[in-house]
Amino acid sequence: MEKAQYFNLGKYKYLIFFMFFIVVRLYLLNFNQGEFTDTYDILYRAEEILKFQYSVHEQRMPGYPFLIALGIPFVDGLGPYPI
């Protein structure tokens, strides 16, 4: 009697691992809309710092927006000042 021919997983172990990784990554992907608005808010606060109009009632510390504000004039089309 002949031995049954089984699927050889050894050749495809990296492909299987990659596909498993992609499926798990898509499953754990966070589609939180708050992240997008938070990014917009940080950029908006950075532009306010450039115009010296940062609100004293803002709850967030201006450290990260200040770092971004330093680079805004060097990025094409984002800063309030022409290059």
Describe this structure in words.
It is a single chain. This protein is mostly helical and 83 residues long. It has a domain at 33-83. It contains 3 helices and no strands. It has helices at 13-28, 33-50, 63-71. The radius of gyration is 25 Å and the shape is rod-shaped. The termini are far apart. The mean pLDDT is 76.
Short recap of the structure:
It contains 3 helices and no strands.
Structural class: mainly alpha
The value of Rg in angstroms is 25 Å
Cα distance spanning the termini? 81 Å
Residue windows where pLDDT falls under 50 for at least 5 positions: none
H/E element sequence: HHH
Mean pLDDT: 76
Helicity, as a percent range: 40-55%
Number of helices: 3
Largest sheet: none
Q: Work out the strand percent.
A: under 5%
Shape: rod-shaped
* Strand runs, count: 0
Q: What are the defining features of this structure?
A:
83 residues, mainly alpha, 3 helices
How are the secondary structure elements laid out?
Blueprint: H1 13-28, H2 33-50, H3 63-71
